[in-house]
Amino acid sequence: MPGNLFIVCAPSGAGKTSLVAELLKRDSRVRLSVSFTTRAPRPAEIDGRDYHFIDSARFQAMVEQGEFLESAEVHGNFYGTSQTWIADQRAAGHDILLEIDWQGAQQVRTLIPDVIGIFVMPPSLPALRARLENRRQDSAEVIERRLRAARSEISHVSEFDYVIINKEFEEARRDLSAVVRTSRLLLSSQSARHPEILKPFGKI
């Protein structure tokens, strides 16, 4: 039984990265796809753990060679997901999680219809502004650009299967874990994983 493929999408500052980090810490069955990017590392980010940091020339070469399941330009930088790694991990039965934007989500959904889309929402735009300002990583101009992008990104929320409103972190963390656990309990998944239990009771 191939592992599930989850997409987690959110506007910058909504708390997606922190929620995903907690999920990975508590659920060893989920593996994070580490994207390739042309942007510079932020403080404390490590190459190969947070992203594969590469230059534009190499990124373009990978695009031309068809190495990406999806790729997109976000805030002037390019991001891409390794197609081979995703296929190999799912074939081994591992659940895979992608942290990508709505453009990438559309590309993945076209190629892999059974992908499970999760959108993380901030409780409001003023709350999102406060979070962006409090993390003290961006200039006022960049924050305004991110807020404009957030409005555009949130307009695509209807394309996702689940919506998590990150008003209170612990509740949002439990919601994300619940989506992952529920997806594993679908009849099709349980039948493939535990035929010795279900088949004796009839056709499935």
Count of domain modules: 1
Strand content: 15-25%
Mean pLDDT: 92
Number of helices: 9
**C-alpha Rg (nearest Å):** 18 Å
Describe the protein.
This protein is α/β, with parallel strands linked by helices and 204 residues long. The chain has a single domain, classed as P-loop containing nucleotide triphosphate hydrolases (Rossmann fold), CATH 3.40.50.300. 45% of the residues lie in helices and 20% in strands. The protein is built from nine helices and nine strands. It has helices spanning 16-26, 56-64, 83-91, 102-111, 125-134, 140-154, 169-184, 187-193, 195-198, and strands at 5-9, 30-32, 36-37, 52-53, 68-74, 77-82, 95-99, 116-121, 162-165. A five-stranded parallel sheet has the order 2-7-1-8-9, with helices on both faces. A hairpin with a 2-residue loop joins strand 5 and strand 6 (77-82). The longest helix is centred in the C-terminal third of the chain and has 16 residues, at 169-184. The chain is globular, with a radius of gyration of 18 Å. The mean pLDDT is 92.
